[in-house]
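G., before I forget:
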Amino acid sequence: MAGSILITLALAFSIFSMVMYFFTYRGAKNTLNIARMSYHAMAMFVIVASAFLMYLIITHQYQYEYVYSYSNDDLPFGFLLSTFWAGQQGSFMLWLLVTALIGVFLQSYTGKRDDLEPRVMMFFTLATTFLLAMVSPLLKNPFAYIWAEPMFLETAKINASYLTQPFLQNFMFSDPASGQNFVKMSRDLYATLQGAGISVNQFIIHGKGLNPLLQNFWMQIHPPILFTGFAMTTVPFSFAMAALLKNDYKDWVRQSFPWILAGSGILGLGIMLGGYWAYGVLGWGGYWAWDPVENASLVPWLISLACIHTMIVQRKTQAKGGIGKFVKTNLLLSILAYIMVLYSTFLTRSGVLGDASVHSFVDPGTIVYLFLIIFVGTFLLLGVGMIIYRWKYLESQIVEEENLLARELALFTATVTLGASALIVAVGTSAPIFKQSVETRFYNEMHVPLAIIIGLLNGFSFLLKWRHSSGEDILKKSKFSLIATGVFALLIILFGKVYDVMMILLSISAAFAFFVNAEIAYKIFTGNKKMLGAYIAHIGFSLFLLGVVGSAAYSKQFEVDLTKGKPVNVLGYTLEFTGYNPIENNTKYEFNVSVKDGNGEARVIKPIMFVSTFNNSLMREPDILEGFTKDFYVTPLSYEDGSSVENKPLGNSVTLMPNEKTSIEGADLTYSDFIKPDMSVMMGGGNFQMGAKLTVTKNGKTEIIEALMKKEEQGVTFVPVELKDADLRVELTKIDPTTKKAEFIIGKLSTPVVTTKPAEVLAVNASTKPFISLVWIGVAIAVIGFFVSTLRRLKESWS
Amino acid sequence: MKNKYIFGGVIAVVFLGMMIYLFTKSNIQYESDFAKVMSSERTIKATGTWVKEKNYEVNKSERTFVFYMKDAAGHEMKVIYSGTIPNNFESAQSIVVTGLYKNGNFHAKDILTKCPSKYQDKQNAAANS
C-alpha cells in the first residue's frame, strides 16, 4: 500500500511540476519556485519508493507479487539487487529512478542558464509523468499485492504447516500433466487467511527465485547503466523541444552537447556490458546476435552518435553568425533518439515481438499495450509536429556554402552513414510486427560496406580542415597513416592469412582511422589535453572494428568428445578432461578441462553445467581462456558418466548401394532390393518401415532376408536378422530413402554380442576468437573518449 | 545546389534498393500452421509446442537433436536440429524452429525456446481447470 501511495504522490507532483513549468514559460511570475519544489518532491518520492521496493525484496515480503516472482530467500544480497530490475515492473521503476535523478541535475543545470529551465523541464516532466503512470497502481505497479490477480503458487512455496488446514482445500489445484499441486492465491484466499489470523507473509515463505542467467555480476551492472543511457536521451530531446518552442536555435546545441555526449558514452558502455554478459554467460560464443532487445538499445545509440557529428558542424558554423548548418538534422535526430528509446520499449514490452526474441516479455495486457502506444505517439506527435510547425522558419535560415574537401561535409556523411545503420537495424527489428523476420546476415551484409565507409571517414575527416582544405595538405598530413596502414595491410595478408576482400578493406579502413587518430592524439597530448576526447573515442572505435573483424570473421569452432584422461588436439590446443566436482552446495558441477597451448603451458578451465530449479532446465556456462591475441572459448554440451551399459553388436560396418555385392565372413551378400516405405504415411509422420532385401550365399546355400528399420511412436528401431545356418548376424544401422544407400553391421552369430562400458565423456564446443579483446578494449577506450569530450563541452556550455 | 540533391538522391536510392533486396533475400516468415510449413519450399520460422508425450532424442554420433512439434490445430511434425538440446528446452512454453521441411522431417538450423515464466507466471495457468 505504502509503495502505491508513494508512486501516486510522485505522479501528482510530476504533473503539477509540469503545469507550473508551463505557466512559468507563459510568463507567470511566482510559479518557478513551486515547479522546482514539486520536481524535487517528485524525485524524493521516487527515491523513497525505490528504496522501499529494495527493502521489500531484501526482507522477502512475498505478499508482493513482484518480490514473489523474482526472488527467493536463498539469494545473496548482490542478486537481490538484480531482482529490482529482473521483471517488467522493476525495470520501469529503475528507468524512472534514473530519469528522476538525472532531472535533479538537469534542473540545476538549466536553472543557471538564461531562461532555459521552464522550457526544458516542462518536456522533461512530461517524460517522468508518463513513466510514473507506467508504474502507477493502474498499470505495471511493482507494489501490487499477490492476491490482486489470481495466481497459482507451487505448494513448495507455502508454509507446510498450513497445507493441511481444511480451509485451504478449496484453493488447492493440481495439474494432471505434471502432477504438481498448486494453491490458487486470490482475493478470496486472502480474505480466508485474514479470517484465520494468518498473514500472507507467514503463509508464503519462499519466492519463485531469480532466473539463473541473471545471477551474475554483469547482470548487476548492465541494466542500471543501460537504463541510465536510455534516460539520458530524454535530455537532448527536451533541449531540442525547448529550442523549437522558443524558435531560437543558437544556444541549444552548446547547452545540449555535454548531455548527449555523456549519454552516448553511458549507453555505449551499457550495450557493451550486455554483449560481454552474452559472451561470458550465455555460452553461444558471441557477444552480439542482432537480437531484438539488443537492437532496440543500439538504434537510439546510433542516432545519438549521428546527431553528435552534425551538432559539431552546427557549433562550428555558428561562428560566422546565424544559427549554423544542419539545424533541422540536429533537431530531428535529438528528438528521434528519445522516440526510438520509447519505440524500443514498445517493441520489447508490448509483446508484439512475441516469437522473435528470447528476451521478449510476455504480453502485458491490452491496457499496457495501448498505454505504450499512447506514450510513443504523444512524443512522436509533439516532436515531429513542432519541427513541421517551425519548418518554414528553419528553411529560411539555411546557410549555403559547400566545399567537397571540408570537414563539414565529411561529418555530415558520417551522420548519414550512422543514420543508415540505425535505419537498417530499425527495419530489421520491426519486421516481426508484420509477421516477417530477417536472418542475421541481413544486418551483417548491410553493415560491412557501411563499416568500411565509417572507418575511412573516421580517419579522413580529421585530415580535413574546416571550410576548405587543399589536396596537397591532406596528402602531406596523411603520410604517416598511409604508410602505417600499408604495412598493416601487408602484415594481415601475409601473416594473418586474411584473404577475404571485404575483410581486408574493413581492416584497412579501421587501421587507417586508428593511425590518423593516434598520430593526432600523440601530437596534441602535449598540448591542450581536453581536446583529446574525439581522438580517444575514434581510436577506441577503430580498435573495436578490428576486434569485430578478427573475432567474427576468423573465429573457428569445433565440437569434440573428451574422454576422461585422454588428451585431444583441438584448434592448436590439447584438451584433457580430468573429472568434475560439485560446487555451490552440490547445485552445480564444474567440469575440469586442462588446456595446453602450443607452448606447452597448461591451464585448467572449468565450464559449468547444472539443472536449474528455477526453470527445470539444463544450464551450461562456458569458460574462457582469455588472451590478448585470442580467446579460447569452451562451452560444455553434455556429459555421460560411464555408468550406463551399452550393447554393441560386434561385427564390421558395411555400406552398400542397391545391387552392390560384397563378401564378408565367408558369405557373399547382394543388396538385391530396396524395401520402400509408404511415402504418404512417412510424410504424415505415421508409422512405417523400410529396409533392404539381401541375398546371402554361404557354403552354396542361398537365403533371402529383409533387414528393416521400423518407425513407431516410441522412435526408430532396427531389427537384426540372424541366420543360423550361415552363422551370420545382419543389422541395418542406417538407410537413406532417396539414395537407397544402406549401412549394415555384419558379424558372426557365434561371436556373442558384447557389452561395453563407455568411459566418462564430456562433449564440448571449443572455439577460438582472434582479437576479441580489442572489442572490449576498443569500446572501453571509446567510452573514456566520450567522457573527456563531455568535460570539454561542459566548459563550453556556459554562454 | 541541384547537383547535390541528384547526387544524394542517387546514393539514397542505391542504399534503399540494396536494403530492400537483402531484406527480401534474408526474409523468413513466421508460420504457425504446420500444414503450410510442410507444403512450403522456403526456409520458415515454424512456431508450435513440443509434443512431450513423444519425448526427444539426442543423437550423439550425428550430433542431432530430434523431437516432435505440433501446432494449435494438432498437426505434428518431426524436427531434426543439428546441434545439442537448447538450455531451456524442457520448460519451454513454445518453440520457434527456423529451417526447411524436407523428406518428411523439418530440418532446423536454429531453435528458440520461449520461457514466459521468466517474466510472468503463466505456466501455472495450465493448472486452472
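Residues 130 and 375 of chain A are 7 Å apart (CA to CA). DSSP finds 23 helices and 25 strands in chain A.

More on Monday.
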